[in-house]
Amino acid sequence: MFDRWYSHTLAQKVERPFVHLLFGARQTGKSTLLASLLPSDAVRIDLADPSQRARYLADPGEFLRMCRALPAQPRGRVVFVDEAQTVPAIFDAVQHLYDADKTRFRFVLCGSSARKLRMTGANLLPGRSFLHHLYPLVLAEQPPPMLIPAPSQSPLPFPWPADARPAHPFMAWELEPRLAYGALPGVVASVETDRADILRAFTAAHLEEEIRRETMVRDWGVFLRFLRFAALESGQILNYAAISQETGASAHTVKSYYQMLEDMFIGFHVPAFSRSPRKNVLSTSRFFFFDLGIRHAAAGLTPSVEMVQGNPGPIFEQWVGIELWKRLQYAGDGQLHYFRTRDGAEVDFVIERGGKWTPVEVKWTDHPSAKDARHLRVFMQENPKTVDRGYIICRCPTPQMIEDGILALPWWCL
Fold first, then answer.
1. How far apart are CA 408 and CA 396, in angstroms?
2. Of 16, 41, 45, whose CA–CA distance to 106 is shortest?
3. How many CB atoms lie under 10 A from the CB of residue 98?
4. CA–CA separation, 50 vs 36, rounded Å?
């Protein structure tokens, strides 16, 4: 059992007398993490099991009857429902039981998709629940094979809690394996020869089949073409008209497909930065897959270090964007943007947090220079009151001050 950064926070919160909802994509380790935190006598209902799912869909009242028959415990009986979104009526039943007696049960509901809940208007227990998310590994969970400098050098410090240093961290990787295989716990923990097969299996057995089960896709061939194209274009600015022409789906359908991926935690949008004084700023968002290994497999590529070496720059930029996004989601108090104008000015990412903007450029170089800082310099000059420092994330061996207020950081300082 490897340590997860969020386990310390989750362990404290699940003790609170609320219903706990944990969402995240398949294979991010939700069930494993909860199994390590919940008591051994917790009642587990696995709705990923077709027989259990069919039973509760046919008779949601069975859940109420089962819970009422459980012997009471001093600290509340723990009931863990996995893949709860597959039977939305479970949420109504949980509310009924929770409202009747807030101490009799400790409910933990886990899910890998919010689509069915959103489409059916399912009850997410407002005022009664804590919402948690789990993501693929971040740098703190899988350290690089070297010492990390003080967190104060990072644009987004993310240390382990002082009293929860990992006893069993995931194995250290250099940069290129991270770009090739992503950060799903099961992939990172596997031997290298199995990683590509695991990622292909996820795409076929989990991603495609999960979408088939969760949604009503009229033309499966069109959707599969969209999925491959969306993966190949991950990290790019969305152009619905071009994607529509490429895949044969209408622009409206393409937008709904992207929303589907986001609902299932397979991807996320990074909106354009809209607070610039310039008038010609682009406004369309960028879309990223949640994990690089899954992105490669969904694109029909074979994940490998050799594949990355063919064109590492765009993949490295995606890796930085995914890392920043995951950590902002865990922090819960910031937003990730990108900045680009029609005349060519651009900053790869802008972190908006605490009333401050932090511009970040990503460069596949081990010798950063003032040339790499030119767009950061312009952005900082245009926003002097809200920007204190800009960063270049690259492969330099040590942090370097490129010019006043612009710091180049090795990727492992991020």
1. 8
2. 16
3. 20
4. 24
| Residue 318 C-alpha from the chain's centroid | 13
Partnered with residue 272 across adjacent β-strands are: 338
List of domains in the chain: 5-133 (3.40.50.300), 151-413 (no CATH)
Q: How confident is the model at residue 278 (pLDDT cuts 50, 70, 90)?
A: low
- Predicted TM-score (pTM) of this structure: 0.93
First and final CA of the chain: distance in angstroms?
25
Closest C-alpha to 353, from 335, 338, 329, 330: 335
DSSP state letter for 341? B
Q: What's the CA gap between 237 and 286, in Å, rounded?
A: 4
**400-403 and 406-410: which strand pairing?**
antiparallel
Query: Any bridge partners for residue 288, and if so which?
Result: 268
Instruction: Please check whether residue 104 is in contact with residue 72, taking contact to mean a CB–CB distance below 8 angstroms.
Output: yes
d(CA 217, CA 223): 7
Distance, CA of 370 to CA of 393 (rounded, Å): 14
Strand partners, 350: 337, 359
**DSSP single-letter state for residue 41:** T
HEC string for 248-270: CCCHHHHHHHHHHHHHCCCEEEE
Give the pLDDT score at 283.
Answer: 77
Encoded tokens for 355: 């009333």
Task: Return phi, psi of residue 82, to 5°.
Answer: -95, 145
CA 357 to chain centre: 22
| Token code pair at residue 201 | 């299996």
Write the Ramachandran bin of 354: left for phi over 0, alpha for psi from -120 to 50, otherwise beta.
left
How many whole angstroms separate alpha carbon 298 and alpha carbon 289?
Answer: 10
Distance separating alpha carbons of residues 409 and 412, to the nearest angstrom: 8
* Cα torsion angle, 360, 363, 366, 371, sign: negative
What burial class does residue 51 get, using C-beta atoms within 10 Å of its C-beta: 0-12 exposed, 13-18 middle, 19+ buried?
A: exposed
Q: Please give the DSSP secondary-structure letter assigned to residue 344.
A: S
Q: Are 35 and 143 in contact (CB under 8 A)?
A: no
**pLDDT 10s digits, 42-58:** 999 999 898 999 999 99
